[in-house]
Amino acid sequence: MAPNDSVESNGGTRGTAVGRRKAARYIVPVAVAGVAAATIGLVPALASTGDPDLPEITAQQLIEKIAASDTQQLSGTVKISTDLGIPSLGGLAGSFAQGGGGGKGDSSADPQSRMTELASGTHTLRVAADGPDKQRVSILDSAAEYSLIHNGDQVWAYDSKSNEAYHATEKRAGTEHRAGQKSGEKSGHATPAPEGVPTTPKALAEQVLKAAGPTTSVTVDGTAQVAGRDAYKLLIKPRQSGSTIGSVTVAVDARNGVPLKFTLLPSSGGKAVVDAGFTKVDFAKPAASSFTFTPPKGAKVTEADDAKAQRKADGAEGLGMFPGAEGLGAGGSGAKDTKVIGEGWNAIAEIRTPGGTGLPSKASGDVPAEAQQFLDSLGDKVSGPFGSGTVFKTRLVNALVTDDGKVYVGAVTPDTLVKAANGAS
Q1: Residues 25, 199: contact at Cβ < 8 Å?
Q2: In which element (H, E) is residue 92 found?
Q3: Which CATH number covers residue 59?
Q4: 415 shares its domain with 268
Q5: Domain presence at residue 301
């Protein structure tokens, strides 16, 4: 069994910094890229079947092993379980992603709504990758299957239950590239899936390792066996108080450095918030047919550009279901109305809503009944020197929406959000 060697992650540790840079380069993008999301307790089938006796390794060496992994081809089955402590999203996820749902441009195959389903419940995924330009992920259901296929500049999604397909053509540099982008690079106009919605342990692990800094403790926590393969366990923990994240464990393939299992435990205790792992994995080249798709006869096909134009015409983009919040979904951390308070695991994004208005009241009638029920199940009224507002809670990410139109959001406790709002007032 590997010893509990540790390494503190700090900005001056050359090996760790180099490891993170290499990690971004070598990541196998099976992920439906996305999260939020999104921002998962493993089912019993993924439990360790033994502790293999492996050569000793330090935490820094293990991080570098992940970063240096050049595995570009794989296929297998992944089980993801998410328990954010919120009601099952179901169709409501699509309403949030598309600004209310039900519009003329909506499609049941649209990745923006379908992949958000991974934010709750347990799902079985079949994944395949052959380099950076070919990926496929399928969500398996008892009576249906939803598939997302990326092949070159073509992105297809298909919902077998409704017999609907969604198609996007990835814009590349040389046609409509962004200013300053090098010739031959992808512009990112269309991706295999919404940003922030990872679907493999590697994609999840990369997000955590990129955030590692002086506030992070990293250790090797023994060994395990996942999907029949020997693995080391990398344990990542915040050194700060106030975070909702207790620890992250990544099981790393001892042979090729690919993360096989990812488990995020909350600081509040209890079952895992996020748990994702392979139940079966093969690192051979997948069949070329895995990345080809032709819409079945009679399928309704929605073009991405048409759907986007229709949603814009309907006024249903971003968080358009909330009056005055239409622009929040598109700003990003670099938007002029967004700033970051704090650092490390306690970083909080402060966002000013367009128009400086908070959420509508229950009596306003401006919020769809289904959305209002969802919000009421999460929200608690709070007040302080900042004024008053509502805290919306999950087991991982919490948000404070003030009555004067500011939003404070992060993977921190409600008390930490209120302190940040008071300090910014």
Answers
A1: no
A2: helix 91-98
A3: 2.50.20.10
A4: no
A5: no
Give the separation between CA 231 and CA 260, rounded to whole angstroms. Answer: 8
> Measured between alpha carbons, how far is 142 from 47 in angstroms, rounded to an integer?
23
pLDDT in tens, the chain (425 residues): 444 455 544 444 444 443 433 333 323 322 322 222 332 222 233 334 458 999 999 999 999 999 999 999 999 999 999 998 876 555 444 444 344 444 555 788 998 878 888 888 999 999 999 999 999 999 998 889 999 999 999 999 999 999 999 999 987 544 444 434 443 343 333 345 555 456 688 888 888 887 777 889 999 999 999 999 999 999 999 998 999 999 999 999 999 999 999 999 999 999 999 999 999 999 999 999 999 999 999 999 999 888 777 666 655 454 333 333 333 333 344 445 789 999 889 999 999 876 666 665 555 556 677 766 766 666 898 999 999 999 988 899 999 999 888 999 999 999 999 999 999 87
Helices (H) and strands (E) in the chain, counts: 9, 19
Tokens at residue 208, please?
């955590």
Q: Give the position of tokens 């106009």.
A: 189
Instruction: Name the 3-class secondary structure at 162.
Output: coil
Distance CA 327, CA 333 (A): 13
> Rounded distance, CA 231 to CA 261, Å?
9
93 & 234 share domain: yes
DSSP letter string over 186-225? B--SS-SS-TT---SHHHHHHHHHHT--TTEEEEEEEEEE
Beta bridge pairs of residue 387: 384
398 occurs within a structural domain: yes
User: Is the domain of 25 the same as that of 81?
Assistant: yes
Show the domain range for 390: 323-329+336-424
Beta bridge partners, 380, equal 391
Say which CATH number the domain at 346 has.
Answer: 3.30.310
Tokens of 164: 């609907």
Q: Pick from 405, 407, 409, 372: which is nearest to 393 by CA?
A: 409
Pair (254, 367) in one structural domain: no
As for how many domains the chain has, the answer is: 2
341/351 Cα distance (integer angstroms): 11
Question: What contacts 197, CB < 8 A, 6 or more positions away?
Answer: 31, 32, 33, 34, 35, 36, 37, 38, 115, 116, 118
141 and 25, same domain (yes or no): yes
Per the listing, tokens 């205790």 go with 269
Q: What share of the chain is helix, strand, coil (3-state, %, to 5)?
A: 25, 30, 45
What spatial distance separates the first Cα and last Cα of the chain, rounded to whole Å? Answer: 52
Total-model pTM: 0.74
